[in-house]
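hey so u asked for the seq, here:
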Amino acid sequence: MIQLKILQQGTGYRYRREDYDDEGNVIYTKSSDVRCSRVKLGQKVYFIINDTQGNSYADANYYLNERMPLFGKSENTRRKAGHVIARYENFLKLMNLQTQDLDMQDITRLTRFFKGAADIQCKNGTVNDYLGTLRDYFTANDIDCQPLFKKRLVETEKVTGDDFSVTMLRYTYVSNLPVNSRDKEVVPKYITMDEYTKLIKIAQEAGDIYGIMLMHLMFRYGIRLGGCIGLTEEDFIYMKIGGEDVPTLIMRNRMSDRPDQKAKNRITPQSRDDYKSAEYMDQWKYDDYSHYYLTESGKFVEAFTSFIKNTREWAMKNKPENYRQSEADIVDPESFREKGLDKNHYIFLNSQGKPLSAQTWAKRLRAYFFVAEIKVDKDRRKNNLSHRFRHGFAMMHAKFMDPPVPAHVLQKMMHHKYISSTMVYYNPTPEEELEQKTKLQNKVFDDNPELKDIIDKYLNDNFDNAENGPISE
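ran it, structure tokens below
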């Protein structure tokens, strides 16, 4: 019997193997402590994997610090990958294995090791993400591990109508753990139009123009919170589209951004020299997934322009020192000078004149939810409150527009990488499913009054006095 133990020490873990004989006696032990450490040198952040004996893992460190930045992976993504690889190396060390020697039984043990135990146990989907990280790592370094890449064909029905359905045929990895598709595909919690209106009124009564602007960008345009609080004065421009000047917000990442200010799926520069690279420039200039067009009717654009101007003037007057520390990098100096400014700043600030953080905003939003009597998660915060606005944007277009926006159009509006992420909004909620089933049952009876009479009257009246009784064998 082999038992792998996870020893928690502070925020990290150490690992130990103990082998037992049939009588429960320990006959073999081994410990391992391979860790991923964050090191900052100048402007660059490195993630280094080594063990307590000082051994370094060259392939892993190259992947984390050279390959991943090359493909625009964020610091947070690299950190997570580093911890997955470190845990994998602990597994190999405890089990006295080499990657090229792994078989399916070893991969099964690895998935159990990743899943963990008791209160630190991971969900199946998280374990699958860990396995996916290893596959990317192996592919980038040309490391052979066939059992981890073994696949099988599965068929799933995505959307069904009266006379039409869409079926997806896809290959999945044999080593991946099963995920409850019902949980994964159910419509997430979202802000309704009534709830949005109520929250806006609460923010208005509190004199919170920042809150109104943030909630509006998230609900009316579907922008993620990180993209919102990472916006700078440079990112609000007018783009020429079809001969018209369209007010546009550009999603792009900077060296000056904090992790919570990052725009998802956008290149994260590793140095300021990257601002001049073709990949970085092409993404924010020509990729529609970097652009949010402020196309609504009304005076929002005018209000947003005034908001930026008034914020700058307030901070310069009341918090000049903090505001100087709140400068953001300028990506395109030539175009930025056309704005008549010489310094670029983040648009959303806190009361001290510093860039607003996701944590500060979350506290305020949670208070607004409480006043609005909108239910929040208490123990396990599964549903990010800010992200509910983005879900509300999606549901408004997928369900409540007449006709609904097609999935492939909404995919682009949501800036989703895969349409499977968009399809979740087209699944019925439990309430909608109950309503549709009730309508169907009622229609069956309305169209067949004789059947309704049998069910409602004959069975109720005659069951107790039925002469034939139960069906005989």
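The chain has a mean pLDDT of 86. Residues 193-426 form a domain with the hpI Integrase; Chain A fold (CATH 1.10.443.10).
lmk if thats what u needed
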